[in-house]
Amino acid sequence: MAELIENKNWSAEENQNLQSIIIQMNLNQNQKSLLNEQIQRFQNSEKVIQLLLEHFNNWDKFQECLIKEMSQTIEIETDWTHQELLNLHQRLSQQIESEEEINEIIQFVQLNKINVKIVEEATKFEFKTANQFMQLVGIIFEQSLIKDKQELIITQPNTEQDQTSQEQTIKDLFQEFNSINQRSNEELQNLLQQVYQSLNNKQELDLNFDNFTSSPQLQYEDLIFLCLKIKEHFSYYPRPVQLLSVIELYNHNPNQGRLAQIFTGEGKTLIIALLAILLSQKKNSNVDVVTSSPVLATRDAEQLEEFYKKFQVSVSHNIGGSKKVPQGMLPCYNSKVIYGDPHSFQADILRHEYSERGTMGDRKQEYIIVDEVDSMLIDGNSNKTLLSFMCQECLIQIRYSDQSGMKYVRQNKTYQQNKKL
Fold first, then answer.
1. In sequence order, what DSSP letters do the residues of 328-383 get, joined into one string?
2. Any idea where the SecA family profile domain is (predicted)?
């Protein structure tokens, strides 16, 4: 019996309209199952049906737009029961002392009708404030969207129709790219088309290479090697929008950075990892990844460690390292790629430069990737990192607050009777 795709919260007419469209689309069973799960996240059918009609012959484009739409709000659930709220209050009180902040979280999940499972998953992590907890909820929700998209890529068969759809996806992607950036790049578009044609036609792939090319410029062989390793580890190939983002960020102008807006659900975590790997291996540079949260930094460094190993790139994080090794070089600074939040990097720079503890060893700071740059430079622009220690005469406090430059200039040292304090 064919699976019925419906949302029981929708009206009979809405479900009937949806069915009439789906029948004409000739979806396979995997696509139907995925769509049935996704529509449960919408209160009404209007947006789903609109996207289906707009992208009737392009399943990939439909999925891309649907996931963007899903990412605009954390998912709608049925109202929380009284018992579920009591259980949540109990879990929150184990980590947050402020009753006001606990009530703020409870109001937040009720007003937004956040999925109970997502909130329960967030309570398993360490957090101290309402803001940290709500940020965790957003991270877990983003992971659920990425998982949906990965399942789609894994289950789709490799057919001629899929290849045509992939070509159209890339064409549409570059039309949007050209419109936003007011510039075109036909050479890059052709390169991406060539890469995905080769991935679809596995017999054309040359699998007899195990590393990147020696050129600092990205070559066809580099992208194929990258995609094959992603497939080997995650069981899916990167999407064109992910590969385009990585290439554009990698090909920055000399002595200039580059800013990119990555939508929720487009796989920003993987994009950052791929960029860090390329900078490390192709340009032989150290990479610091600055995230907005210590929880996020720890999670990404630990979960992606095996993936980095496939490219012979060492990765670690600097969260809490000074507590374990108060003096001397922290082990994490032996790694080519280091994840951390602004405070952890600032504190380590202070310990290394001012206190002269050798915290960072002789590792050079060469490339920096800032995740959630608006969070660091706008929301957190007034944050400070204080480094204090006891001496015989006084307690010296040195502050470092230049978040944008991530550089420290030694100045204003205090001396008394020719004695360095």
1. S--GGGGSSEEEE-HHHHHHHHHHHHTS---TTTT----EEEESSHHIIIIITTT-
2. 130-421
Spell out the long-range contacts of 121-127 with Cβ–Cβ below 8 A and sequence spacing 24 or more. 123/88, 123/91, 123/92, 125/295, 126/95, 126/295, 127/95, 127/96, 127/295
Residue for token digits 């969260």? 319
Q: Which residues pair with 339 in a beta bridge?
A: 289, 317
Architecture of domain 286-421: 3-Layer(aba) Sandwich (3.40)
Read off the pTM: 0.59
* Structural domain boundaries in the chain: 82-146, 158-284, 286-421
Tens-place pLDDT, residues 380-396: 666 777 666 655 555 44
Residues 6+ apart with CB under 8 A from 359: 322, 328, 329, 330, 333, 348, 351, 352
Q: How many helices (H) and strands (E) does the chain have?
A: 18, 8
pLDDT of 310:
93
Average of per-residue pLDDT across 398-418: 42
Sign of the torsion formed by the C-alpha atoms of 193, 199, 204 and 207: positive
Q: In whole angstroms, what is the distance from residue 315 CA to residue 296 CA?
A: 14
Q: Which residues contact 350 (CB under 8 A, 6 or more apart)?
A: 385, 387, 398, 400, 408
CA 141 to chain centre: 12
List the structure tokens of 418: 């020719």
**99/88 Cα distance (integer angstroms):** 13
Which value, to the nearest 10 degrees, does the dihedral of the CA atoms of residues 89, 90, 95, 98 take?
50
